[in-house]
From TrEMBL:
SMART domains given in the database record: HTH_LACI (SM00354)
Lineage, top ranks: Bacteria, Thermotogati, Deinococcota, Deinococci, Deinococcales
InterPro entries reported in the protein's UniProt record: Cro/C1-type_HTH (IPR001387), HTH_LacI (IPR000843), LacI/GalR-like_sensor (IPR046335), Lambda_DNA-bd_dom_sf (IPR010982), Peripla_BP_I (IPR028082)
Cited PROSITE patterns: HTH_CROC1, HTH_LACI_1, HTH_LACI_2
SUPFAM superfamilies attached to this UniProt entry: lambda repressor-like DNA-binding domains (SSF47413), Periplasmic binding protein-like I (SSF53822)
Protein name: LacI family transcriptional regulator
Chain ranges of the HTH cro/C1-type domain: 2-32
One family name in Pfam for this protein: Peripla_BP_3
Keywords: DNA-binding, Repressor, Transcription, Transcription regulation
Amino acid sequence: MKKKVTLLDVAEAAGVSPSTVSRIVAGTARVSEKKRKQVEEAIAQLKYQPNLVAKGLVQGRTLSIGVLTQDIASPFYGSALLGVQEALRGTDYVPVFMDGHWQPEDEAVAIQRLVGRVDGLIIMGGHLEGDSLGALAESMPIITIGRTIPGFEQHSVLIDNYAGARNLVKYLFDLGHRRIAHIAGPHEHIDARERLRGYYDAHKEFGMDIDEKLIVHGDFQEASGSLAVATLLESRTMFTAIFAANDQMAYGARLALYRRGIRVPEEVSLVGFDDTRNSEYMMPPLTTVRQPMHELGLAATTALLNLLNDEEVVLEKITPQLVIRESASRAR
């Protein structure tokens, strides 16, 4: 069995004391460039693997980043988590993922389990009270995606859901649609409310009255998209297009339309929001609004690392991009 290389081996090869090697590995040493280079060359030559737990103890850190998502299984959040992992690659930090399951109680438990075990938090969406998060942000670095914390607004990565939804509905109006159904997300979710507001204001901009029967609420899951279409059809309310508040509900809506023999887009146009990975492979490929979740995960993690290093954080609101595919066509 090959002998494990120790810190003492590195010290002997570099011609320095073990404590010097330890401080250089921990990043706390004040030594000459020559001595630092000797140690780094010895580490590379011997292929020494530093004990990151010990390094963290020296620095007073856990070298872990807590990430609270709402649904780890969701392709929407999965892209963001990949961005987190990419941003941490090459650093000493490892991510610790927790799931809030869209429930404030579960979010609170997840945060309780993370606090004290991680050096900082990335919180993606959620329903926890702003005051509670504000108090937590006073004690540890936090970056949020899709929501703000009172007093720490500059530490948020925000998407302009309102503008994205308004532009999407205006696109449907430009195609000649005047009866546009909306499968809204849960009202308690800020993203859903902003997308609904964009739907309303696009109608106002075109001087169109809104038929409230065309608005059905779902829960951002596929099954609720199917149920929403069933509700719309059973109400016998006429529509030529459906705007689902996220792609997952659009998938469910597409299935419900298919099972009733309603062709997309020949009879009903269908659009979504998020541009998750499967959307370009739906039949027909889904017109949607792209949220760059991978890039948002990268940006949030980079910002958190900057906070941990006492560096400035500058985050700007992002307007999502309309992605035109084949699921929407001119009204007939």
